[in-house]
Design a protein that fits this description.
single chain; alpha+beta; about 30% strand; globular
Length: about 160
């Protein structure tokens, strides 16, 4: 996956990088990205996810799943907190799979699983995101923190077509 110039400029191996609207800390198995929510920073987070995971040997299915989960969590945070909300995204490859974590400052509103939500409802205008997260990262959880909440998702290595 080619990286946009913006994402490419963020990638200095294991060197934290600060720029308007974000602060990136690469790690050997992923990254932590502090950012204000914007379309540009979402694209950067998606590109960083692909770059970091492909660098750890993850296959394209795992990369796609991690990007999808990150985007869903990001969208939910923006809907709950508003545009330009400060977020912290973490992506980390581990032996069991890939952790995708997103922290936002609103500890009062938590995403909720909706029993019976259908992914195949052609008439639904919304409501598919969390069931999709359930499918890709069963057992995801929300943890209240002193400054908000963090949604934690572990995507299983079983999703990875490279293994």
């Amino acid at each position: 996956m080619p990286l946009t110039p913006h994402v490419h400029s963020l990638l200095h191996p294991l060197t934290p990088t600060a720029s308007l609207g974000h602060y990136l800390t690469p790690t050997p198995t992923g990254f932590t990205l502090h950012m204000s929510a914007s379309p540009t920073n979402l694209r950067a987070a998606r590109g960083l996810t692909a770059h970091a995971l492909l660098g750890t040997g993850a296959g394209p299915d795992m990369v796609d799943a991690a990007q999808l989960v990150l985007c869903e969590l990001y969208g939910n945070a923006v809907r709950a907190c508003g545009d330009y909300v400060p977020l912290v995204a973490e992506v980390e490859a581990v032996p069991a799979g890939v952790w995708v974590r997103l922290h936002d400052p609103d500890g009062r509103r938590h995403p909720r699983r909706v029993p019976g939500a259908r992914l195949d409802d052609a008439e639904a205008e919304s409501g598919r995101g969390l069931p999709l997260v359930d499918l890709l990262a069963p057992g995801w959880e929300v943890v209240t923190t002193p400054v908000g909440k963090q949604v934690r998702c572990l995507l299983s290595r079983d999703l990875d077509g490279s293994n």
